[in-house]
Amino acid sequence: ITLSTEAQGRYKRQTGGHGQYGDVWLRVRPLPRGKGFIFVTKIKGGAIPSRYIPSVEKGVKEALTKGILASYPMVDLEVTLFDGTYHPVDSSDLAFHIAGSMGLKKALGQAKPILLEPIVELEVEVPDEFLGDANGDLSSRRGKILEVEPSQERQTIRATVPLAELHNYSTSLRSTTQGRGAFAKKFSHYERLPDEIAQRIIAQAKKSN
Predict the structure, then answer these.
(1) Of 18, 194, 28, residue with least CA distance to 103
(2) Most Cβ neighbours (<10 Å): which of 73, 75, 138, 140?
(3) Full-model pTM
């Protein structure tokens, strides 16, 4: 998410016997990349009995596993439970579980969520004469060249590249360098997916649903 926001999740059902009632107010805010998920409780005055708070957290976590953009999991956000109400007869763990999930989905819809993509760090070793072609191939894959280091008629390129762009990279490198290139990769971090690509993925997800 890119914005902090607040939302209410209220679940109320009435049948012949006892009903179901759970009511929560949640505040969400973005966290730095790699911080994961944090759940904070700031309930005062017994607005929600403490026995129901774990159920709210479970509902929130459940909603996070299937985000509102193309159903991808949500990461790097803090969720604070700061208010709510309960019914002495109709409230239950199930009702607060559902209310937590409802409240989070509503908050996420207001928090301008974005799609992230995994970025890997590449170390590519090529003979001197193929340096230009190797750099060009990486650039065509939305790669960012970080450093080029010469060593005994060979060049070592360090770059970051979106994981999704590395399809067939091994074959391409062999072709570009006449079989004399080599590379190693490792996960680096997540970055915001370019809007054009994100919109295409979201549209495809809507069609499949």
Answers:
(1) 28
(2) 138
(3) 0.84
Is 55 within 8 Å of 103 (Cβ atoms)?
Answer: no
Indicate the burial class of 6 (C-beta count within 10 angstroms; 0-12, 13-18, 19 or more): middle
Domain with CATH 3.30.230.10 in the chain: 5-110
Segments of the chain assigned E as strands: 5-13, 20-30, 37-41, 77-85, 116-127, 144-151, 154-162, 182-192
Q: What is the pLDDT of residues 161-192, one digit of tens each?
A: 999 999 999 999 999 999 999 999 999 999 99
DSSP state of 168: T
Contacts with 167 (C-beta within 8 Å, 6 or more apart), sequence order: none
What percent of the chain stands above pLDDT 70?
99
Q: Classify domain 5-110 at the CATH topology level.
A: Ribosomal Protein S5; domain 2 (3.30.230)
Q: Tokens 């060593």: give the residue.
A: 151
Q: Which residue matches tokens 């179901």? A: 20
**In whole angstroms, what is the distance from residue 151 CA to residue 191 CA?**
31
Give the model's pLDDT for residue 60: 98
Q: Where in the chain is the domain with CATH 3.30.70.240?
A: 116-192
% residues pLDDT > 90 (the chain): 89
CATH topology of domain 116-192: Alpha-Beta Plaits (3.30.70)
pLDDT-based confidence at residue 208 (cuts at 50, 70, 90)? confident
